[in-house]
TrEMBL record:
Biological process per Gene Ontology, one example term: rRNA processing
Source species, domain of life: Eukaryota
Entry keyword annotation includes Transmembrane: yes
Top-level taxonomy: Eukaryota, Metazoa, Chordata, Craniata, Vertebrata
Protein name as annotated: Brix domain-containing protein
Organism: Amphiprion ocellaris
Disordered: annotated segments: 321-385
Length: 385
């Protein structure tokens, strides 16, 4: 048998579990699922998007045909889910709805183009994707979302809130293994969604020295002396085609995993796309969980008078609904009151009948006793029954 834990060990374990629960509960979580029939390719796209959102998403969420949106909303609260990504397909388009729980808003996107992970990876000479990359959430990068427009700012806020926030003073660089890039094009109003694997390599040394720093020792059969490897690095090729320059070289504030990545040393940050990729276009923004007012529409524009008229009609509908609800409550109360009165009258009738029966029984007993005393014998059966 193993050694039992001491009191301090149990206390430390309880504190660690509590801190882990608080930390896990403080970050956003997501459900990625479909509504209706979407086909094999869109189904695989959903699985790929779940992969992007790991580890704070439901990896094995099961969706049944009879499930409605309210079912997902009901279960999302206890699980701490904050966002929905809902895919659907029509004969003419593929759509994605992005919703903030529990009260919205909901953003409706059209998926103009998409590529699956397998398509992106198959186009690369050598990809960098492994399980350790998905133990931490990706770094979110937003580009060109600073343009004017309420809908653009709302999109940026929604995307930011989907991913955990980062404290630049306490973040460990070794936890950043992936990044998600969202690029907004103001002219076409399209959003490019890209998912990259991140790698950091030291710079300022020949490719031969880099090979020596790696775990695999280079093939020395073609060299007469090691100086040829260090000085020339001939016939050595790197796996990444990207050329290092000012755009991707930085000075590391921390030691980063990988040989040669030291503090205050220059290293190059290299990105390798691992998919999926999507081209999105915002269609509309709606209040609530898809049942509120339209805050923005990409194709329909309304004047102030039309907006006020819509708001008046909506307010009238709300008042009418409230009046029906109050009328229904009154009818239920009246029906309940009638039932109580009927029940009360029934009880009173039962009590009255019981009292009358008891009085008749007493009177009958008195008559029998009088006959017995007056005549001196028992009355015949049935005379006083």
């Amino acid at each position: 048998m193993g050694k039992s834990k001491t009191k301090n060990q149990k206390k430390s374990r309880a504190v660690a579990n509590h801190v882990a629960e608080e930390t896990y509960g403080a970050v956003p979580h997501s459900f990625v699922f479909n509504r209706g029939q979407v086909g094999k390719n869109v189904g695989q796209l959903i699985l790929d998007v779940r992969r992007v959102m790991e580890p704070f998403t439901a990896e094995s969420l099961k969706v049944r045909k009879k499930n409605v949106l309210k079912d997902f909303v009901a279960i999302a609260g206890p699980l701490g889910v904050t966002h929905f990504m809902i895919f659907s397909k029509t004969p003419s388009s593929i759509n994605m709805r992005l919703a903030r729980l529990p009260k919205g808003p909901m953003l409706h996107f059209r998926v103009l183009k998409y590529s699956l992970v397998k398509d992106v990876v198959s186009s690369l000479k050598k990809h960098r994707m492994h399980e350790q990359q998905f133990t931490h959430h990706p770094l979110l990068i937003l580009n060109n979302f600073g343009v004017d427009g309420m809908h653009v700012k709302l999109m940026a806020t929604m995307f930011q809130n989907m991913f955990p926030s980062i404290n630049v003073h306490s973040i460990s660089l070794n936890n950043i293994k992936r990044c998600v890039l969202l690029n907004y094009n103001p002219e076409t109003q399209e959003i490019e969604f890209r998912h990259y694997s991140l790698k950091v390599v030291p710079v300022g040394m020949s490719r031969g020295v880099k090979k020596l720093m790696q775990e695999r020792f280079p093939n020395m059969s073609k060299f007469e002396d090691i100086s040829e490897l260090l000085m020339k690095g001939a016939n050595l090729s790197e796996s990444e085609p990207e050329q290092d320059g000012e755009h991707n070289i930085t000075e590391l504030p921390q030691v980063y995993s990988g040989r040669g990545n030291m503090t205050s040393q220059q290293s190059a940050v290299r990105l390798t796309e691992i998919g999926p990729r999507m081209t999105l276009q915002l269609a509309k923004i709606q209040e609530g969980m898809g049942d509120g007012n339209i805050l923005y529409h990409s194709t329909l524009s309304k004047t102030e008078e039309e907006i006020q008229e819509i708001l008046k009609r909506k307010e009238a509908q709300i008042k009418e609904k409230e009046a029906r609800r109050m009328k229904q409550a009154q009818n239920v109360a009246q029906k309940k009151e009638k039932q109580e009165d009927h029940k009360k009258k029934s009880l009173e009738g039962i009590k009255r009948k019981r009292a009358e029966d008891e009085a008749a029984a007493v009177e009958s007993d008195d008559e029998v006793e009088y006959y017995r005393q007056a005549v001196g014998q028992e009355p015949d059966e049935g005379d006083y029954n």
